[in-house]
Design goal:
Layout (H helix, E strand, L loop, with lengths): L4 H12 L3 E5 L7 H10 L7 H5 L1 H5 L1 H4 L5 E8 L17 E2 L8 H28 L11 H5 L8 E4 L7 H8 L3 E2 L5 E2 L7 E8 L18 H4 L18 H6 L7 H4 L5 E3 L3 H5 L18 H4 L3 H5 L3 H7 L9 H16 L5 H5 L7 H14 L3
Length: 374
C-alpha cells in the first residue's frame, strides 16, 4: 500500500524546510475564548486594541473560515548560531531579538506555506482523479460520461503566519507540535522553542494528530529570567510589562519604572526563550537567511541613535524592524543609552533632546539625566 496523502504531506513539509507538521481540527481549541477574554479583561493586551476587536475570530478558528475541516500546523526553526544573551553584557551595544536579525520571517514562511498548499491541492486532485477512475465495471462504464460532466471539486486552502487572528500556539498544541510553556510560547521536546509557526487551513478532511501535554514540570527558568516581571503567574503574560511589547507595540513614552529594567534591549526580547532548558534539543535553522547579520548581532548604540528616517529605512530594508519606524526605534535606543552607565554616550543623547518626535525627545532627556553631568 502506498503512502497516504497525510504521510506525503508531512514528507513534503519537511522537504520545504519545516521541522514539524501536524494536523488538528479548527474546533480543537475550546479553551481559547475564555483565556483570551480573561487576558483582555485584565488589560494585559495594553495598546493592542486589535486583540479585543477581533476576539471572535481569534477565539474561534472555525469562525475565521467555516468551510475549513482541517488545520495543518507547521513549525520552522530559526535557532540562533550564537548566544543571544551575550549582548546583554555589552552596555554600549543594542540587543535585537534573534528573529529580527535578518530577513522578515513573515515573507519567508508564507512563501513556503503557499508552495506547500499548492502541492496539497495538486496531490489531492490527483488522488481524487485516480480514485474516481478506478474499478469501472462494464455496467458502470456507461456512466463515465456523466461523471466527466461533473468535474471534481478541488479542495480549498488558506495560509496564515502571525498576521491573521489565528491562535497559532493553541492550535500548535492541539495538533501535537508542542505545548504552551510557562512563558506562553510553544515548546517542543524535539526542537525547543526557537520556531516560527504557520498554518494551512483546508477543506480537506485530514487525519488529526494527538495533542501534546505539558512538560514544563517545576521549571521556572523562563519566569525568573524576565527583567520586567511580565509574568503575573505561570502561563500568564502581562504584555504591558513585556519588553517585546514595549519596544515594538507600545506607542509613546514607556513608563519610567520599566525603562531601567529594559536594559539594552532595543527591539524585542529573547530572555525567556533563551532560558528554556528544552533548547538543548534545538534544531538548526534550514534557511541561511535566518542567520544573523553581522551588523545586527550587537550594533553600537551610538550609531543606532543618530539614524535619521532615510538611514533607518535603508539599514532595516527587508527587516521586521522597519515596521516600527525610526522614532520608536530610536526611543528604544535612548532607553538603552540611559541604562548603559557610559558617560561618553551622554553627548549622543544630548543631541536628541530637541528631536521633533516627543517620545524620542523625552527618552533623550531621560537618558541624559541617568548618565549625569560630564
Amino acid at each position: 500500500m502506498g503512502e497516504s496523502l497525510k504521510d506525503r504531506l508531512v514528507a513534503r513539509a519537511r522537504a520545504e524546510g519545516f521541522i514539524a507538521c501536524r494536523v488538528c481540527r479548527p474546533g480543537d481549541v475550546p479553551e481559547v475564548p475564555e483565556r483570551l477574554a480573561a487576558f483582555v479583561e485584565a488589560g494585559y493586551h495594553g495598546q493592542m486594541g486589535w486583540l479585543a476587536e477581533r476576539m471572535h475570530w481569534r477565539g474561534d478558528p472555525a469562525a475565521l473560515w467555516p468551510a475549513a475541516r482541517s488545520v495543518i500546523m507547521l513549525a520552522e526553526s530559526y535557532t540562533p548560531e550564537h548566544d543571544p544573551m551575550a549582548v546583554l553584557a555589552q552596555p554600549d551595544r543594542g540587543a535585537i531579538s534573534v528573529y529580527a536579525q535578518n530577513r522578515d520571517y513573515h515573507d519567508m514562511v508564507k512563501k513556503r506555506l503557499k508552495r506547500l498548499a499548492r502541492w496539497l491541492i495538486e496531490e489531492a486532485d490527483r488522488e481524487a482523479r485516480k480514485t474516481s477512475g478506478c474499478g469501472l465495471s462494464s455496467k458502470s462504464a456507461t456512466s463515465t460520461a456523466d461523471r466527466a460532466a461533473k468535474p471534481l471539486v478541488s479542495p480549498e486552502v488558506k495560509v496564515f503566519v502571525d498576521t491573521a487572528p489565528v491562535p497559532e500556539k493553541a492550535l500548535g498544541q492541539a495538533a501535537g507540535l508542542g505545548w504552551q510553556g510557562k512563558h506562553t510560547n510553544l515548546v517542543s521536546r524535539d526542537w525547543g522553542n526557537w520556531a516560527f509557526l504557520g498554518s494551512v487551513f483546508t477543506t480537506l478532511d485530514l487525519p488529526v494528530d494527538a495533542p501534546e501535554s505539558d512538560h514544563c514540570g517545576n521549571c521556572r527558568a523562563c519566569l525568573d529570567v524576565c527583567p520586567t516581571d511580565a509574568f503575573p503567574a505561570p502561563y500568564r503574560l502581562d504584555a504591558r510589562r513585556c519588553i517585546s511589547y514595549l519596544t515594538i507595540e507600545h506607542k509613546g513614552p514607556v513608563e519610567e519604572e520599566l525603562r531601567a529594567a529594559m536594559g539594552n534591549h532595543v527591539y524585542g526580547c529573547d530572555d525567556c526563550l533563551a532560558a528554556c532548558p528544552w533548547n538543548k534539543f534545538a534544531v538548526a535553522a534550514s534557511d541561511i537567511r535566518y542567520a544573523a547579520r553581522d551588523d545586527l548581532m550587537a550594533p553600537r548604540l551610538a550609531e543606532l541613535a543618530v539614524l535619521d528616517d532615510a538611514a533607518f529605512r535603508e539599514m532595516f530594508s527587508g527587516s521586521p524592524i522597519k515596521r516600527i519606524g525610526r522614532d520608536r526605534f530610536v526611543r528604544n535606543v535612548l532607553y538603552a543609552i540611559g541604562n548603559s552607565g557610559l558617560s561618553p554616550l551622554r553627548a549622543v543623547a544630548q543631541g536628541l533632546v530637541e528631536d521633533p518626535d516627543p517620545a524620542v525627545a523625552d527618552a533623550a532627556r531621560w537618558a541624559v539625566g541617568r548618565l549625569g553631568s560630564d
